[in-house]
């Protein structure tokens, strides 16, 4: 199984400041034949299902604000929120789909400082 | 707008079978794409249970494979999950979701609201 490790477990950021979440995979999720990273990011608010934010490591899902961005390649990835808003308080998960079983990171809780 | 809705018992006794159904609206379940089940124990992270293609070919998490069956009923626009021999460790919110791939297993772009299933006598 590909193990996804997120860091930090939680972070508190002031409104308007940048939040950065890291995700590391136990093996590369870059598929050489198409040069795509098989990595997605989700946002989950309390009592709600996860919401897809980013796929292919850096492609923003339709309707997702552009303050959310994904970067990285191979085994190391980052989700950035450029200017944290109150509505961004949530738990964020990464997920690899390079191979089965599909696996998720343990989650990073983002709060307001 | 694609919508998914889980349904099934909220309480299952230990050693019995957990059965859930996901009803899909706003999209033809047999047109393309794949459909999956994911669970989340209270206060914990997400675990992929398995997925099924629009043509009915499933893939399961090896950690659950011996106990899981996922099937699709295109006539009812539904897909289903059966998890046998449940224990308290299977207590979780169970989500159904759409995987927008047509030839592999990818990410999930539409999710149901989830249903809490508690395993207890």
The biggest beta sheet of chain B reads: 7 strands, mixed
- Helix and strand succession of chain B? EEEEEEEEEEE
**Class by SSE composition of chain A:** mainly beta
Radius of gyration from the alpha-carbon trace of chain B, in angstroms: 13 Å
Distance between the termini of chain A: 36 Å
How many beta-strand elements of chain B? 11
| SSE-based structural type of chain B | mainly beta
What value does the average pLDDT of chain B take? 95
What's the gyration radius of chain A in Å?
Answer: 13 Å
Descriptive terms for the model:
A: 113 residues; mainly beta; seven-stranded mixed beta sheet; four-stranded antiparallel beta sheet; globular; B: mainly beta
Structure write-up:
The complex is a heterodimer of chains A (113) and B (121). Chain A is an all-beta fold and 113 residues long. Chain A is 0% helix and 51% strand. In chain A, the strands form three sheets. In chain A, strands 2, 6, 7, 8, 11, 12 and 13 form a seven-stranded mixed sheet that branches. Chain A has a four-stranded antiparallel sheet with strand order 1-3-10-9, with no helix packed on it. Chain A is globular. Chain A starts with a strand and ends with a strand. Chain B has 121 residues and is an all-beta fold. In chain B, strands 2, 4, 5, 6, 9, 10 and 11 form a seven-stranded mixed sheet that branches. Chain B has a four-stranded antiparallel sheet with strand order 1-3-8-7, with no helix packed on it. The model of chain B has no long low-confidence stretch (mean pLDDT 95). The chains are: A mainly beta (113), B mainly beta (121). Chain A binds chain B through residues 1, 38, 40, 48-52, 55, 61, 93, 95, 97, 100-107, and chain B through 36, 45-48, 51, 59, 61-63, 95, 97, 104-109, 111-114.
